Amino acid sequence: MRGKYVLGALGLFCSIMTLTRALAQSSSASSTPTWLNPVWQQALSAPLLLNSGIEGSAPAVLPQYTISLDLSGETTTYFPDGPITTASTSFFQSLGTNGRTCFSCHRPANDWSITPLTLLATFAATQGTDPVFAPVDGADCPDKGAANNTFGLGFIAARSQLFTRGNFRIFLPPPANPQWVSVTVSSDPTGCETSAVYGINNPTNPTLSFYRRPLPATNVIYTTPGLFGGGPNIMWDTREPSLSSQFHDATLVHAQATASPTAAEIAQGVSFQSGSFTAQTFDYVGRDLTGGDSSGALGGPVNLYEYSDALPYLGNPFAVFSGGNCSVPVLPCPGSLFPSTVVPGDFNGTELFSSFATSGGATAATIARRESIARGEVLFNTRTFPISNVTGLNDLFGAASPVLGTCSRCHNNANVGNDAFDDPKHLGIADNSAPSQAPTGTTTISMAKDQPIFAFLCPQGTIDYFSNPVVVNGVTYDEYQTSDPGVGWITGQCSDLGKFKVPTLRGIGARAPFFHGGQAANMQQVILFYKNRFNIQLSAQDIQDLVNYMNSL
User: Fold this and answer.
1) 98-136 pLDDT, tens digit each
2) What is the dihedral of CA 91, 418, 391, 170, to 10 degrees?
3) Burial 6-22 (b: 16+ CB within 10 A, else e)
4) How far apart, in whole angstroms, are the C-alpha atoms of residue 223 and residue 229?
């Protein structure tokens, strides 16, 4: 992932497209999104949590090196400017009416996302009074949350998406003048989609609800604003143009604030997120991942922050990002994209774990794990496979032929694993498109019974690489079914249905479940999805090596 990322002509083509899109977006970035006011009004109308407390509030001080345990070892957040006093940082302050702070949903133990295990522990410790459980979006639907506000099994059942997948409810109005002819609710297990108050049947403020994982609020300096300073790549559906707007809108909606945060509060929240760096630092078997034991490993947040100090600048024009200790164009930086300037297979000395297995004094088990992690890194960066039928990639060429690529083709930010081009991708997760796309005719991620299903009637041919003809009133449409329309619900374009941002990978092992709606319970399911989706030739050992590598990031 920290490798060279063979992109060639694709890199130049996507870069030009991204720059063009960024210029178009910059003119409207400061305006209020059309979706915000109706969402805010619904948030203000949602009931509050009964007996909401502050038991889950942040510690008074976060150390410069904030260490947490996870399932594979330890993760560490590094604050280059020193310890954080939370009382004087808006990220940790309640700015609304329900007691919520950003910290409520973004915890260091989960690499600044949150997981079902953390939520269950918080539920037990606070008897369900932590503001994270606010009905507005912590419940499957606010009326369910309000009716089940006291500690017990009913409380959990009313928040099934939260406790089983770590999902929060994202509720948004329909876009203006959508391309589709109609959208209907085929399945409504939460009861929120067809609600006369909170759903599409509200006569004055119709909305649909989507259940999504919180993206990490760390390492964001490397994932936004993206290549050439443009493109909103900080939300699953790209609806926010900047961290500032995200902080503002989250305060109004998730915290149910009655007024906007001040400019100083917004700046403070953005500064905190931009100044935190998180990565895995220790593996229970492989031990130290940072090179502190002279193993040659380059994992951990300090190496991430100081990445540029160890690498020569190779003169590539794609090293355009400035952050951490970087000073572009003197040195390439984390978050930069740089295709090969040497020979194929040469990662310009940028691997995290290429020398990991050579350290002396380690036990046989430790050496075996380190060798596995190093092999996983090579697989991620070099195992090629034909990428086909992916909007946001294949369609950029205007050709039907597959693109030969690797995992790092899309996770192409150096040392970060985000997509530098800010091109959301449609992979067919939890919709009816992937079975016809995957060479094996199947995937491991289908629409789940516990999540809603929406059916869109789109003009034939408007969804790339998709055909599902149905006849309605004598007219043939393509019926697209999904649990979450993603970018399409923001743009109103059928071609954007099912598109989502490519998430950053650093620290990913501590924030299961994975994908936008928590559809993959563990890392192995993630690897198997891609194996099936693109018919990647992976042995059982290859899969385990990739799992170990991903959990070491």
Assistant:
1) 999 999 999 999 999 999 999 999 999 999 999 999 999
2) -20
3) bbeebbeebbeebeebb
4) 10
User: Of 310, 297, 319, which Cα lies nearest the Cα of 4?
Assistant: 319
Give the integer Cα–Cα distance in Å for 109 and 113.
8
542 CB neighbour count, 10 Å cutoff? 17
| Residue 539 CB burial class (10 angstroms; 0-12, 13-18, ≥19) | exposed
Q: What are the phi and psi torsion angles at 480 (to 5°)?
A: -105, 125
Share above pLDDT 70 across residues of the chain, in percent, rounded to a whole number: 80
Range in 149-163, 195-209, 360-374, 480-494 the model is least confident about: 360-374
The pairing of strands 475-482 and 469-472 is antiparallel
Three-state DSSP class for residue 66 = strand
Q: How confident is the model at residue 188 (pLDDT cuts 50, 70, 90)?
A: very high
Cα separation, 545 vs 291, whole angstroms: 20
Q: Which residue has the tokens 């083509």?
A: 13
> Which of these ranges, 4-8, 162-166, 258-262, 405-409, has the smallest mean pLDDT?
4-8
Separation CA 543–CA 536 (nearest Å): 11
pLDDT of residue 444: 63
The angle that helices 364-382 and 540-550 make with each other, rounded to 10 degrees, is 100
DSSP H helices, 174-316, are 243-253, 263-274, 301-305
DSSP H or E stretch at residue 22: helix 8-26
Cis amide linkage into residue 513, ω under 30° from 0: yes
Beta bridge pairs of residue 105: none
